[in-house]
Write a structure and sequence with these properties.
With about 475 residues, the chain is of the alpha/beta class. It folds into 2 domains: about 160 residues, Golgi alpha-mannosidase II (Immunoglobulin-like, Sandwich), CATH 2.60.40.1180; about 280 residues, Glycosidases (TIM Barrel, Alpha-Beta Barrel), CATH 3.20.20. Helix content is about 25%, strand content about 25%. Helix 4 packs across helix 5. The longest helix has 18 residues.
Length: about 475
């Protein structure tokens, strides 16, 4: 933290429709076979564009595959140590993640609270609980755990790694050494010996152990891993953070925020922590619809730049921030409700839309009349048809798009993310919010060939061509 498998489960009532992923061949086939299935209507675009943009997916022009663990999230170690959130008993949060982020993903445990003296009080029970939690979210989830580098104590690193390896399958966990070492060590030459001492001791005892790092605050410093014993090619994750908008309070317009949602080419890197604005984020910015838009545009940019995953950060238990407050973060993707359950924050909506593309091959697109602030990612869906994700980065103007693909088609299904404005604190999916535990009363909207989709400012649409 900077301080400075495609399936859908359908209940008998739409109010009990719970998605384990957004779309699947199974659902699309069922929907085509049942034209009487109720569907929600798409909200009209705010300030609709005067022209219709055509987006054509080129099914024969296949590119890279979106990694199956591209979507995940990062949490503070203090949230795990609380042993009340990431436990097998937290069915509300488990269901929210499982229903909407799917059976695979990446959880990073670290942040400032992982690098303290004395060392964090990890126990075997806490390790067991977080392992059971992440296992319940889906069999394909993997974990990165940050070992305390500040104490420079190999015995402590060995003890904590042992707790976790007693609980996690060794193939599903990797270890970092420290958090944002530029702040704690200053230079690569000061940090690398600590990494190497931990690596040597732990790999001698656990020869199949996986490592990650350097988990730097700057993407430009991922090269620090080159001076470690395994080098960049010998670690499972090369990691860094992104906080490029400064710390709160800052004066930002939605347009300024969305302009930051981009990264340069970094093939193989995992963006292991970001929060748009550091210091826990800022009310009115990181907890609004535009946080979902930011995530989607950053995900599109990161995939195009060769990143393996991007993980937005959470601080779910109160923390002493530099602004003098003691609170949870404003950039969290999950919000605890008064009854103890968990509901999604705005950024979560962006995560679930992009997650639908995981594991699928990207394809090129051709556009005409598209707003230059809009961005498009298309993949070959599991049914062989095009799935097109359109993100409207325009903060004032809606856009209207007509989806097409190079082969003939008749029907598509649309998931529309919208709000009353870019700063709406309560975005909706096809007109309905997602509630505690992932419960959603909405349904996909049927679109026929030649019809258009209106996407409001800071909105997005996932258009899955079915047949």
């Amino acid at each position: 933290m900077a301080q400075r498998h495609h399936r859908i489960m359908v209940g008998q009532r739409l109010s009990k429709l719970i998605l384990s992923l957004l779309l699947s061949t199974v659902f699309l086939d069922e929907a085509v076979a049942d034209p009487n299935r109720p569907t929600s209507s798409l909200p009209a675009a705010a300030k609709p564009a005067s022209t219709v943009a055509t987006i054509t997916a080129n099914q024969s022009q296949i590119g890279a595959t979106i990694p199956p663990n591209f979507v995940g999230f990062s949490v503070e170690l203090q949230d795990v140590l609380a042993d009340s959130i990431f436990t097998p008993g937290n069915t509300s949060l488990i269901n929210l993640i499982n229903n909407w982020l799917g059976p695979s993903g990446l959880l990073r445990i670290g942040g400032n609270s992982s690098d303290t003296s004395p060392a964090p009080a990890l126990t075997q029970q806490i390790a067991n609980d977080v392992s059971a939690f992440i296992s319940n979210t889906g069999s394909g989830w993997q974990t990165i755990y940050g070992l305390d580098s500040v104490v420079k104590d190999t015995n402590t690193a060995m003890s904590h790694a042992s707790f976790l390896l007693n609980s996690f399958p060794s193939a599903n966990i990797a270890f970092q050494v420290g958090n944002e070492p530029e702040f704690t060590f200053g230079t690569e030459q000061s940090w690398a010996p600590v990494f190497n001492s931990y690596f040597s001791a732990l790999s001698a005892t656990f020869p199949d152990l996986k490592f990650g790092g350097p988990d730097t605050v700057l993407l430009s410093n991922v090269s620090w891993t080159n001076d470690t014993i395994p080098g960049a090619s010998g670690v499972k994750y090369v990691t860094a953070h992104k906080y490029t908008l400064g710390c709160a309070p800052v004066s930002l317009t939605p347009a300024h925020v969305l302009a930051d949602a981009t990264v340069t080419s970094n093939p193989g890197v995992t963006l292991s922590e970001f929060g748009m604005i550091c210091g826990g984020g800022q009310q009115g910015i990181t907890d609004r619809l535009m946080a979902a838009t930011y995530y989607l545009k950053l995900a599109q940019s990161a995939f195009a730049a060769g990143f393996n995953a991007i993980l937005p950060h959470n601080v779910l238990t109160p923390f002493h921030w530099d602004d003098g407050t003691f609170r949870v973060a404003y950039y969290n993707q999950f919000v605890q409700q008064p009854d103890g359950g968990y509901a999604p924050a705005p950024m979560f909506y962006g995560m679930l839309l992009f997650q639908a593309l995981e594991g699928l091959s990207s394809i090129s697109t051709t556009t005409s009349n598209l707003d230059n602030l809009a961005s498009v990612t298309a993949v070959l869906g599991s049914n062989g048809q095009a799935w097109i994700l359109v993100v409207n980065g325009d903060t004032a103007q809606g856009i209207t798009v007509e989806p097409q693909q190079t082969s003939s088609w008749s029907t598509a299904y649309v998931y529309l993310l919208s709000g009353t404005s870019c700063t709406d604190p309560s975005p909706v999916l096809n007109g309905f919010p997602i509630g505690e535990g992932g419960v959603w009363a909405g349904s996909p909207t049927i679109l026929t060939n030649g019809e258009t989709v209106s996407i409001p400012a800071c909105g997005a649409a996932l258009i899955a061509i079915a047949s």
